[in-house]
TrEMBL record:
InterPro entries: ATPase_NBD, GspL_cyto_dom, GspL_pp_dom, T2SS_protein-GspL. The chain crosses the membrane at residues 214-232. Belongs to the GSP L family. This is Type II secretion system protein GspL. Residues 34-139 form the GspL cytoplasmic actin-ATPase-like domain. The gene is gspL. Residues 212-361 form the GspL periplasmic domain. It comes from Sphingomonas kyungheensis. Its main location: membrane. The keyword Protein transport applies. It is a single-pass membrane protein. Keywords: Cell inner membrane, Cell membrane, Membrane, Protein transport, Transmembrane, Transmembrane helix, Transport. It is found in: Cell inner membrane.
Length: 363
């Protein structure tokens, strides 16, 4: 048993049609025992815009996405405010066009609120024109619950004079009798070609009990995912470990080339540090210290080096010649600014030159 509930249209209020084993019974107002049998809500024909388009049939999500793109191009209303539903009437004479229904989100939400107020949760919401059979050609017209409806293969609208006559014109048409309309309602109730209860307005299904088979499958799937994740981590750790060992072996082999030939290797890092210290000298080393001294001399015009002696403790004793009394002091300050400790000896003046010695060491 199925009940068709027709929403108010014009001056007409709620009307219903109950189908029980092919028998049709009509009534007005809220149908009796509405919550006990499946209810299909039928909004007025002028409340839903219908289109037909060739859409993908593999995935409902793909079909709806494509339909929303088409509707966005044809509608002045922002697509975010519209609800788009896609149906399927099957392929007819090589044409795979599918019906697309468009209605404002606020309107369909209000329909559901009104139905809930009278204790009805619609199983389907089917536009009125789609209750009529799809004609092979031309138009079919019929009166459903006191309201005229017309449709063709790719259109559906309210049969309101004189607009409907202007649309149909001289095209071939067929007017259905009351018995033919009831037969069409029985067929449409058994297999609706389009249901507006899709996407955000889909009917929520209530689960009774626990599907333990599904729970077991989900548990096995979760365990498999964890094992695969663990295996990936183990492989990554092993890869990093092998790579680190290979890099360490390569580093040690490269370090051996920097040691003296025939030297026994115990700790490559320490032995290389010792050899580097022996090569560059104690302290900061010969090269670093002398480079800093020459930089200070270049930065003090009028001074020159007359002697340079690198000591075993890493300090450097330098002989300095200058054109004026103040220049040795300027050179000393420049070396101290570079981070060295400078000890100046006694400077003497002779033949217009000032000469003396300084000891430059690491602080």
């Amino acid at each position: 048993m199925t009940t068709l509930l027709f929403l108010p249209a014009g001056t007409l209020g709620l009307r219903w049609c109950r189908i029980d084993q092919g028998a049709v019974r009509w009534g007005e107002g809220v149908p009796p025992d509405a919550g006990e049998a499946p209810v299909i809500v039928v909004p007025p024909a002028d409340a839903v815009a219908l289109h037909w388009a060739e859409l993908p049939s593999r995935s409902p999500a793909q079909a709806i996405a494509a339909a929303r793109l088409l509707v966005a191009e044809a509608s002045a209303t922002p697509i975010g405010e519209l609800h788009v539903a896609v149906g399927d009437e099957g392929e007819v004479e090589g044409s795979a066009e599918r019906p697309v229904a468009v209605v404002a989100n606020a309107v369909i939400a209000q329909w559901l609120v009104d139905c809930a107020a009278i204790g009805i949760d619609p199983q389907h919401i089917v536009p009125a024109p789609l209750l009529l059979p799809r004609p092979d050609e031309g138009y079919v017209r019929g009166t459903i619950a006191g309201v005229g409806v017309a449709r063709s293969r790719t259109t559906g609208f309210a049969d309101e004079a004189p607009l409907a006559d202007l649309v149909i014109g001289d095209t071939m048409q067929e007017t259905l009798t009351a018995r033919m309309v009831e037969s069409a309602l029985v067929a449409a109730a058994a297999a609706p070609v389009l249901d507006l209860r899709q996407g955000p307005f889909a009917r929520r299904r209530r689960r009774i009990g626990i599907d333990w088979a599904l729970v077991r499958r989900l548990a096995l799937l979760g365990a498999a995912i964890l094992l695969v994740t663990l295996a990936i981590d183990l492989v990554r750790i092993a890869k990093y470990s092998f790579g680190a060992d290979a890099l360490e072996a390569r580093t040690e082999a490269l370090g051996r080339t920097g040691l003296a030939r025939g030297e026994t290797v115990t700790d490559v890092d320490r032995q290389l540090a010792e050899r580097l210290s022996a090569v560059r000298g104690p302290g900061l080393g010969f090269s670093t210290t002398v480079a800093a001294i020459y930089a200070a001399v270049r930065a003090t015009p009028g001074t020159e080096l007359t002697a340079l002696d690198f000591q075993s403790n890493g300090s450097v004793r330098i002989g300095v010649g200058a054109a004026r009394e103040s220049l040795p002091t300027d050179l000393k300050r420049a070396l101290e600014a570079a981070g060295f400790t400078v000890t100046a000896g006694t400077f003497q003046s002779a033949n217009g030159r000032v000469t003396g010695e300084m000891t430059v060491s690491r602080p």
